[in-house]
Each structure stands twice: as structure tokens, then as C-alpha cells.
Amino acid sequence: MSREQSQPSEHADAVTLLEAVTLALDFEMAHDPNVVVLGEDIGDNGGVFRATLGLKEKYGFQRVMDTPLAEALIGGIAVGMATQGLRPVAEFQFQGFVFPAMEHIVCHAARMRNRTRGRLTCPLVFRAPFGGGIHAPEHHSESVEALFAHTPGLQVVIPSSPQRAYGLLLAAIRSDDPVMFFEPKRIYRTVKSQVQNDGRALPLGRAFMLRDGRDITVVTWGALVVETLQAAAELAEEGVSLAVIDLASIKPLDMDTIFTSLAKTGRLLVVHEAVRSCGVGAEIIARVAEEAMCWLKAPPQRLTGMDTIMPYAKNEDYNLISASDITQRAHQLMENWR
Questions:
Q1: Could you say which of 104, 140, 150, 331 is catalytic?
Q2: What is the pTM of this model?
Q3: Cα 165 to Cα 150: distance, rounded to the nearest angstrom
Q4: Catalytic-residue membership of 104
Q5: What angle in degrees, to the nearest 10, is found between the helix axes of 280-291 and 255-265?
Q6: Would you place residue 3 in the very low, low, confident or very high pLDDT band (cuts 50, 70, 90)?
Q7: I need a surface site. Which of 113, 127, 178, 274 has the fewest CB within 10 A?
Q8: What distance in Å separates the CA atoms of residue 18 and residue 22, rounded to the nearest whole number?
């Protein structure tokens, strides 16, 4: 198929985060014949959430490959493809299913450039929906981004809007090193915004300042960006000004953006759905303590999920963070440390 025959539209349409993922995959497949996608049910069925719907019909079974229900196989095949000139985008149905493939991700994909002293790279993307909020069992609702952030050689990216899903996935596919691309499924279809399908990537390793503020710097990512912005709007009516940063790239961390905001506010709140212990929030606060303690007007705070397995549907809301939770913690941060 020629590029002329397969050019995606560059018209700006209002799309969901899920549709933005599909747009990015379509654009890269149209412009780079080495881009292939693989995973369980991603061809005929378009994946469990339909992120690859229509791609097999457009690009054929040699570039859109259904695999057996075997995550270790998906991981191994993707690494092999990447070292031999292809740019595979492999989908795990849920982040909690990734563990059988950890051998290939941690021991091979992440180490390939170092192991071969740069002779081989591993340009691949592992996509997976993650997080709670859809009343699914625990393996379908986990948030374990910190596991991969702890692994040298991996980049970890989490979009929070259609625009960032589109631009960051393009950048991930074009990267010469492996990227773990985790998509917050709770907001897959809940918010629409315009996305220009022009192939412009967003930079990896860069946080996004969504709202400037003078009182508290709030750092978050994924689905919780929605609740954080809601809380910021509510607090603004009370005279409390929140700066909201969408971290987006969990690894590498963009601490410069955080430091710039913290120099104005002097207060830090990190909000994430993952469990509290050894989470990314702890890493952010540790770096602030090491490099920016002089700016702090109050001890930095975390608002996180509980140190427990994600509860089943009836108790899931107890573990999820709401806008009111963020508002309450912001009030405490202001009142206790003026």
C-alpha cells in the first residue's frame, strides 16, 4: 500500500482518548512500513477496548497480528522484531497481564542497547490499559507504573487527554528505545477534544503545565488529571490557587517543570492512583527534598491509593481518589502550614 493511498486525514476532529490512540497508530502505519502491531484479539476484534479497530482491514494480517493468549510470547516476539528493523507496537489487554512478559521487557528490551554497546536498539512500544474505575477484577485495574520506572532502559509514558495520547504515542513509536505506554482506561471514552491528525509528536520526558498557580503545586498523571483540574477550579472560587502539572512521562521525570512551579508556590502535593509505598510520588518528593528544600513552605504531601490489592467493584470507590479528596488535602496543606 502506497503512502498516497493510505494517508490519514489531517482534519481536526473531536475524538476520545481511545480514538486518539487509533489515529496515532494509523498515522504511523501509513507513513512507516516497519510499524507493526500485535496482541490478543487486536486484529479481527480490534482489541478488548477496540483501540486497533479497522487497522487489519487497512494494513493486512502481516502488519496487524492476532497472537495467542500468551503475554510471554508477545513480549519475546516484540523484542525480536525490534532488533531486526521493525517497530512493533504490542498490546497487553490489561496492565495486570504484563507479568508473564517481564523477562523479555526487563532482561532484554530494556538492556539491548547497553548489552550490544549500541549495535542494536529496541524501538518498540508496549501498550496497556491501566487503572481502576470500570468495576473490573484486580488484574484488570492495577496501577504498577513504578515497577517499570524502576527499570533502567525503559521509558514510561501515561497520557491524560486525546491530544497527549496522540502526540506521545507518535513519539513513543518513533523512539529508538523501548517505551511502556499506559493508557488510563477510565477516561478512554469520557472526554472528547480536538486532535489535529498531522503527525506532530509531543516530546517524551516533558511534563505539561495545565494550570498555573501561586499556592500549591499539584503533580498528577493519567485519569486523575480530570479530578485534579476539577478540584483546582473549585478551590479557585475559594481563593486558593493550584498549579496543576500533568507529569505524562513517568520515566524520565521532568523535575525542572516541577521545580519551576514549586519556586512560586512553596507547597507540593503529588496525587496518584497507584499504591502509596514506593510509588512515583515518593521519588518526586525525594528529589524535591534533595534539590529544592529551600523553597518549601510546608512538608510535601502525597495523596495516593491504598497499600492494598485493588478492591472488587463494590469497594472500588473507597480506593479511588475523588476531586473532594484533593480539595480536602489542599485545604489541610494551606491551613496547617501558613
A1: 140
A2: 0.94
A3: 23
A4: no
A5: 60
A6: very low
A7: 113
A8: 7
In the chain, % of residues over pLDDT 70: 96
Grade residue 191 by pLDDT with cuts at 50, 70 and 90.
confident
As a whole number of angstroms, the distance between CA 109 and CA 305 comes to 29
- Give Cα 23 to chain centroid, integer Å: 17
Give me the count of residues in the chain.
338
pLDDT score of 138: 84
C-alpha grid cell, residue 239: 481563593
> Average pLDDT for residues 40-61, to the nearest whole number?
96
- What is the distance in angstroms between the CA of the first residue and the CA of the last residue of the chain? 64
Q: Which backbone phi and psi does 36 adopt, to 5 degrees?
A: -130, 155
Full strand arrangement of the beta sheet holding 208-211: 208-211, 242-246, 216-220, 268-275, 301-305
CA torsion, ordered 71, 118, 146, 69, to nearest 10 deg: 0
